[in-house]
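Q: Could you fold this chain for me?
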Amino acid sequence: MAPRTAAAPVSRFFAVRDPDSLHIVCGAHHRNLERLEQRLEDYRLQAESQGGGITLTGLPEGVSIAEFALGTYLQKTMNGIEPGEIEFDGAINAAFSRVMQQTGGAIKGLKTKVSPQTTGQTAYLAALQDESAGLVFGVGPAGTGKTFLAVAIGASELASGKRDRLIVARPAVEAGEKLGFLPGDLEDKVDPYMLPIWDSLRELFGQEQLDRRRLRGEIEVAPLAFMRGRTLKNAFVIIDEAQNATVPQMKMVLTRLGRNSRMVVTGDPSQVDLPSKQPSGLAHAMGILNNVSGVRQMRLTGADVVRHDLVSRIVDAYDKAEARNYNDGRSDAG
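A: Sure. Below is the predicted structure, expressed as structure tokens.
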């Protein structure tokens, strides 16, 4: 979960006077505090055990989340729940959900109300709503809502007048980016690859408003290759299926970002359709931009799949099979 505003850091003391309780809350070798700092890294949280409690330093919202998580975990252990990593992670998740409910996590201004359905989606949506994050990566398997939530935020910012345009691009790998042989204009050629985006926009705007905005040029779709040479000003830009972008393509599109614009890059690193031995621009970009200010990287998992319950089990089964193949020294190609 990413902070909504760039506020000044604060420091507060979470009191735990009983030494045994303090040891339980901190965890063996202070592992719980390390986990808390890791989960709240975007809030620059630091948690330090001192006599009689824990000093929490960081952005105000992060300190509040940490206080609620520690309080929830302490209460659970006092009620006889066996302490452990799973219970502590559950307390942090509960804190995230509480803060999102208090700050109004739902996306407003659209025909359909959009709210996060899982803990991972809650954190992802908070990052998307964070104005200080000019670039957000959202990666994970199909069905986790990574593209839909990005489109919903872009549609909301367009509807509110915060941005002038919503631009969505995808690498047209299936057509090798060579769409000239298809009939019709550019939009007609690209539409078969953009149907999921149009479905989402239709749900969020309604058909009539969507048609009006398309006619006014407020909503644009194009193959990733058509972003070359442009500067995207006052726009909300979504790069979907980015795992199929090459390294040069990813560098090209990331540097198109103009004044008062934001960009969301979504994809599933496990579903690369590029020719063999050609590296994915998504993985490369996330690697080199990991610690760059203004960039958020959010990872969704099978636990965030909100389609049919069976889908998350299918995702988990494939992940386990791929892990076994990797450990056995095999690959799909081999």
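A (continued): The beta strands are 10-15, 46-50, 53-58, 135-139, 165-170, 219-223, 235-239, 262-267, 295-299.
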